[in-house]
């Protein structure tokens, strides 16, 4: 019969810990929600991300946005240890954005934000792209700042406006 208790780790295989500041007392606890919010803000900042979360989560998020209560952790799952963090990002990409490049940019943004703002080592950022958003004519029209657009220049070099 084998012993189900795992063997103790050697002292040199344990992750390094930061020594407390001399004279400092107390402990710091960083909740998963705080780390998830930082990761969510970082992921949303990457161009090409249409939204975070699955279809049903995004529908609920649209309702939250309408009442002014945006959930910055939507589409983000984290596992926080004493010295390390793992992050999963679930998102919808915008059409036309190279998906592998988008995933790499999201990884970079999340790694940088979490390591800088939380102070824990990020061991992995898994990116799940569940859909691609294709803008419709109505979506493009609602994104315009005014009721008309500049269509470019004519043969005279003057800009033409389309109403």
Please characterize this protein's 3D structure.
The chain is α+β, with helices and mostly antiparallel strands and 163 residues long. The strands form 2 sheets. Strands 1, 2, 3 and 4 form a 4-stranded mixed sheet that branches. It has a two-stranded antiparallel ribbon with strand order 5-6. Residues 5-17 and 144-163 have low confidence and may be disordered. The protein has a domain at 30-136: Alpha-Beta Plaits. It contains 4 helices and 6 strands; from the N terminus they run H-E-H-E-E-H-E-H-E-E.
Give the percentage of residues in beta strands. Answer: 25-35%
From the N-terminal CA to the C-terminal CA, the straight-line distance is 81 Å
Tell me the helix content.
25-40%
Fold-level CATH name of the domain at 30-136: Alpha-Beta Plaits
Total of helices: 4
Q: What's the overall average pLDDT, rounded?
A: 76
Query: Any idea what the shape is?
Result: elongated
Radius of gyration: 23 Å
> Helix and strand succession?
HEHEEHEHEE
- Let me know the CATH homologous superfamily of the domain at 30-136: Cation efflux protein, cytoplasmic domain
Helix-strand category: alpha+beta
Topology, number of strands: 6
Largest sheet: 4 strands, mixed
* Named CATH architecture of the domain at 30-136: 2-Layer Sandwich
CATH class of the domain at 30-136: Alpha Beta
Low-confidence stretches: 5-17, 144-163
